[in-house]
Structures are given as C-alpha cells and as structure tokens.
Amino acid sequence: MKRLTIVLAVLAVLLGLRPVAAQTTGTVSFRYAGHVVRAPLFGSRVELVPVFALLGATAKFSPAMGTWGVQLDNHMIQFSPGLRVVLADGKLAEGREAPVASPGGIAASTDFLDSMILSPLGFHLERVADGFRITPGGRRGAPLTVRATAADFSTTTTLVLTMGRPAMAHVNETRPGSVTITMEDASPQLDRATVLRSRRIRGLEPTADGLELSLAPGIGLLSWHALSDPPRVILELGPKAAPPTSAPQAAPARRPTRKGVRPIVIDPGHGGKDSGAVSGSGLEEKNLTLAVARRLARVLRRMGFAVRLTREDDETRALTDRTALANRLDALAFVSLHANASRAASVRGAETYYMSLDSASDATAAAVAKLENAAGSTARSGSELDMILWDMAQAEVLNESAQLALSIQRRLNSLLNLPDRGVKQAPFVVLTGATMPAVLVEVGFLSNPKEARRLADSAYQDQLAGALATGIAEFLRSGR
Amino acid sequence: MKGRFVLVLLALVAAAALAWWALRSGGGTAERPREAVATPSAPTPGPGQRIMLLFPGTDGLLHPELRQVALPTDVDERAMLIVNELLAGPRSGLLPAVPWQATLLDLFVDDSGIAYVDLSGPPAPLAGSNVELMVAYSIVDSVLLNCPELHSLQILMNGHEIPTLTGHLDFSRPLVLNKRFISKR
Q1: Is residue A322 assigned to a domain?
Q2: Do the chains contact at A359 and B170, CB–CB below 8 Å?
Q3: Could you tell me which of A124, A257, A475, B130 has the fewest CB atoms within 10 Å of its CB?
Q4: Which ipTM did the prediction report?
C-alpha cells in the first residue's frame, strides 16, 4: 500500500500539484444524519474535507506523497489531486474527472464525490432544494447495457462483461455455483444479442441488484478484475480446489476465502530449452530449481498449505505464463526459485529480490504526462490506461513482497549460515504483473565451485527447502 | 592555345574546390557510417571533466572508476562517450562491464530524455541474474550519473528490443538509475 502511495505521489507531482490559483466562490450545504455542514466551493468544485468530517471519516493528506487517504469503518479510499484514478478498498476505478488541490486541501466535483468516494464508503448523494443530502446505502441506478462473451480454455473459462459506460462493479460467489455481479449506480441489463456458449456456464440472468451467473457443477469463481476503455469486468472461472480433508492444528496460514483455498505458487526457474546457469561440474540451474521446488512443496504441504508448481517437469514455460498462473489461482504468494552465476567465481551466497517499480512507475508517469498533454482526454487509449492501473495494482502488493523477501532472506541467512547478500529490488520479468506478494530467490551461485557442490547435495536441498518454507510460513502467519 | 590552358586551369581549380568541399562536408547528405559509432573510442587522455564509470567487481557488485575526459556538451555525444569508455574496459582491476566483445552500434536520445543504447549482442547465451544485472546497471547507472538530462535508458541488441538477457531482468522497457547494485565500500 505504501508503494502505491509512492506511485500516486509521482503521478500527483506530475499532474496535480499545480499552483492553487482560483479562490473560494461560495458554499454548498451537505446534510447527513441530522447534521449540516456548509462546504466551501472552489470554482465549480466542492471542498471535500468538511464532507469527510460530516460523515465521521478520517481524512489524512501525506504532503511527502501527495496523496489523500479517507478511512471510515473498514473502508479505505486513496486518491491524488490531478488523478482520475482512485483506489477504493483495494480496487482501482477511474472517475470522469480528477480532484484538485485547493485552499481547503482537496476539492472535487459532486459527481466525483458521489461515485468515487461516497459510493465505495456505502453512501450516495442526492440533490435537495438547498444543497445535497448524503444517504446510507446504494442507489438504484440508470439502466446499463452489458454485453457478455465467454471463451473456454482447457481448464478455465474467461467471461468478459463489457459495459456501456463506466460503473464500479462488485463480484461475489454467493454460494457454490452462483456468482452475483452488481454495479454501483447502475441497473445492468443484458444486451439482447448476448448468447453465451460455454461448457462451464449454465446461464447469466439479470436480477433486481445486478446479474446472476450460474455455473456448471464443480466450477467456481477463481478471480476477477475490472478494466476500462471499454469498461469491462473479466471473470476467470474454473474448477474449485477440493477443500482440505484434514489440516494440522499448527497451520493457521491456510486462508480459505470466498474463492476457496488459495495456494502458494512455487516457480522452478528456467526449464526445457532454457537450462539457466550451469556449474563447472554440469549441474544445470533448471534441474536444481525443480528439485528444490519439489522439496519445498512437500514441506509446505506438510505445514498445511496448498501448493502449485508452475512446472512439474523439465518443461519450457514463458516467464509471463508463470505469473499468470499465480494470478489466475489468486495465490497467497509467488516464489520464483533460481540459482545464480557470476563472472567472479568467488561470489557466493543467497539473495532475495522483489519487484522494483522504478522502470514501471517511470514509464507510467511518462505515459500519464504524455496523455495529459494530448488534446482532450479522449486521446487516452485503453491499453495505456490499463497499464497505469496495472502498475498501480502491483504497487499495492509491493510492501508485502518486501516483507516476504525479508522473511525468506532472514531464514536463509540464519539456518544455512550463508553470506548475506541481502534483499534487493529489480524489475524482473517473472515478478511483473503479480497481484500477490511475489519474490525471486537466488539460492546460491553455481559459478562458485564450493557452493555448486553444496547445492548439488540432496541433504542441502532439503535444508534449503526447510528454510524457504519457514520464511514463507512466517510471512503468511504474520497476517500481512 | 592560351585560352585552352586557362580552361584546363579553371577545370582543375573547380575540381580541387569540389573535392575540398566534399571532404569537409563528410560526403554531403550521406548517412553517418555505422562504423563511426560502432568503433569504441580509445580511452580519452588528458585534461577534461571527471566522470564516474561503474564496473563489476569480484563481489558481484558495481564499483566506481574515475576518469578525466573531455566531455562533449551535447547529451547524445556525452552518452556515447560514456558507453564507449565502458566498452573499452576498466583500468583498475575490475571486470569488464559487458562480458563479450560488444560494440556500440547506435545511441540516440528521444525528446523525453530516454537514451537508447544499441549494442552488438553476445555470441552465445549468458546465464545468471548477477551477470544480467551487472551488464544492465553498469551501463544504465554510468550513463545516467554522467548525463543528468537523461532519466532512463533502454538497452537494445543488434537493433532490436530484447525481453531479457539471461531470463530475469526486464529489458523491454527503459531502466532508471538503480544504486542498489553499487558497492557501499
């Protein structure tokens, strides 16, 4: 979350922190639960801080980061002046316009206040004779046409719901085989031309609150996310993991969610045509990482975790497919295993990496600046905006990735007495796009003859697997 | 007879003038030969500004090496000089920045401050994230530290974008300064 704030800050600096030139131009009243507040107007926008106070929400501005955070009950909304993108309870959404820095802190249109802030907080805004009234609960919105298309793959089905206009969507698996899709301020209606042909979908019907998706037996919701331009919701459907029959009592980290048991995804680096590094004695990185991954999976399963490997054998796997599998399974954590090589034979030790968004955020900032400079917001393409949203989503889990990396590296250092090469950040391809805590572990240097001999030893591989499992389990049990 | 001599003399003078002009203008509108960029310049001796180059050490981290060079004011030329100095190799017992006989094929800077460095690729596949990180950040950090006008740098190989060099680092987008791999000692 901290990293997201940094990304927001970079974008805010680029876009939003312009000198405050206009002055307060009047006030407008807001009513809530018998209380009234008069919020100053800033041009055509409303100062938001008095509205937050009226609701009893905590609103904090980080000057260093340039971001606002509004908290009420279990909800957290984050946004920045100059940015149309808002993070509401971990979900990204894009408003029609951006809030601006103002004499009172932050000001926005009532449309932004209603759709981007009040709605995720569980309120809606109604115009009344002398201003606005804030009312708890959602609002039955205007009809919204939804076009549905589905594509069956070997083990999963992707369902795309394309909406006629932007609307914040919520997807929930209410009971086995049934998924509801609701859209705030909107009453979804299926496009008449919609004909779904999928062996995993039984039907999609409009209800009073939205849409209800009926699934074939044994099929469930694996994950979902929203994209814009065109606004759409993408659902990944597939077989649900079987519930655990028994789990040791000392396994608090297995986290059943509405989506079922979430696995830890272990990625044995390289494979197939890509051997990776090779030691002087001929030990190939692809074989070493697979051996350690299998041992690690066994240890984690004994601890009560569900585990998936990105490859079970000596197979070629694209880097992006490895991350995609973890995303599709909504993994608890993604751990990519590697063995290093250096031109200096003396270099040895383990190191753990997590994603650096340096290049991504920089490219994002450049893309945003370019788009903002373009004539009119219609110049913004879907793919560019998706890239921004994607980077921001990644930034959200960056802090957790750092904690996972620290936990693993600490265990590798203490259990194996390895030289500490530390936790580092780099923009590694296999970590790009991971939406869960994700790290890449270099377990040692195959270019160091002594370390290569050690890495080839099966007892040492067991020790490595134990250290990695302990580090992963400690991170997951910490409840981050 | 005298008139014919004058005509010949005039023709000779015209030819000489044309040759001089052609030599001076470097062939008129013809493209700059790639070899002019591809050949790493010899380390620049003598007075000039101090630059810091980063080369890998035997600890798997980058170490600085300071040099005095005559730095061009033009950012393209300055970046080119830095890369050529790197490719010419270290002078202080460090390891080469690039572990193959790489040549600089091209270097250009776009309007937004991104440098694109096109190197000849390795003759055989390389392995190890450390090798990859050392290649990438010796170039990226050396150029960006000496060219503050630039904010990022993308490495191309043989005129093409590459997804990655040894299967880890993302080479498909520009990289920014990363001091995490510079030795603190």
Answers
A1: yes
A2: yes
A3: A257
A4: 0.72
* CATH number of the domain encompassing residue A306: 3.40.630.40
Cα–Cα distance, A403 to A407 (Å, whole number): 6
Output phi, psi for A43, to 5 deg. Answer: 65, -130
Which residues of B touch chain A, with CB atoms under 8 Å apart? Answer: 56-60, 95, 99, 112, 127-131, 133-134, 151-152, 163-164, 167-170, 172-176, 178, 180-181
| Residue finishing a domain among A108, A136, A164 | A136
Same domain for A172 and A290, yes or no, is: no
In-domain check, residue A250: no
User: Does some domain include residue A249?
Assistant: no
Are B125 and B147 members of one domain? yes
| Pair A400, A428 in one domain | yes
Dist CA A468 CA A27 (whole Å): 59
Q: Give me the amino acid identity at A199.
A: R
CATH number at residue A70: 3.30.457.10
**A272: Cβ contacts below 8 Å, ≥ 6 apart:** A286, A314, A315, A316, A317
Residue A361 within a domain: yes
- The Cα B182–Cα B185 span in angstroms is 9
Determine how β-strand A91-94 pairs with β-strand A85-88. antiparallel
Lay out the sheet containing A142-152: strands in order across.
A186-190, A142-152, A157-163, A232-239, A219-227
Query: For each of chain A's 480 residues, which pLDDT tens digit applies?
Result: 444 444 444 444 444 444 344 466 789 999 988 889 999 999 889 999 999 999 988 888 876 556 788 888 777 788 888 887 777 766 666 777 889 999 999 999 998 998 889 888 888 888 888 899 998 775 556 678 888 888 776 677 778 888 887 777 888 887 888 898 887 767 787 877 777 888 889 888 877 667 889 999 889 887 777 666 567 787 888 887 644 333 333 333 444 443 458 999 999 999 999 999 999 999 999 999 999 999 999 999 999 999 999 999 999 999 988 988 998 898 999 999 999 999 999 999 999 999 876 544 444 444 444 433 333 333 344 445 555 555 555 666 777 888 899 999 999 988 777 778 889 989 999 998 788 899 999 999 999 999 999 999 999 999 999 999 999 999 998 765
Q: Which of chain A's residues have a Cβ under 8 Å away from the Cβ of B134?
A: 342-343
Final residue belonging to a domain, choices A136, A151, A186: A136
Three-state secondary structure readout of A158-170 = EEEEEECCCCCEE
- Asked if B170's CB is within 8 angstroms of A432's CB, the reply is yes
Domain of B10?
A: 1-30
Do residues A87 and A105 make contact, with C-beta atoms less than 8 angstroms apart? no
Beta strands in A420-480 (DSSP E): 420-426, 438-445
Provide the token pair at B64: 């600085």
Exposed/middle/buried for residue B130 (C-beta within 10 Å: 0-12, 13-18, 19+): buried
Residues A225 and A159 in one domain: yes
A90 and A210 in a single domain? The answer is no
Show the domain range for A126.
2-136
- Answer whether B127 sits within 8 Å of A285, measured CB to CB: yes
Domain count, chain B: 2
Question: Which residues on A lie below 8 Å from B129 (Cβ)?
Answer: 338, 340, 353, 426, 428, 440, 442
**Which CATH number is A156's domain given?**
2.60.40.3500
A234 and A287 share a domain?
no
Query: CA of B10 to nearest chain A CA: how many angstroms apart?
Result: 58
Q: How far apart are the CA of B162 and the nearest CA of chain A, in angstroms?
A: 12
- The CB density around residue A152, as the number of other CB atoms within 10 Å, is 14
Angle, helices A358-373 vs A382-416, to 10°: value is: 170
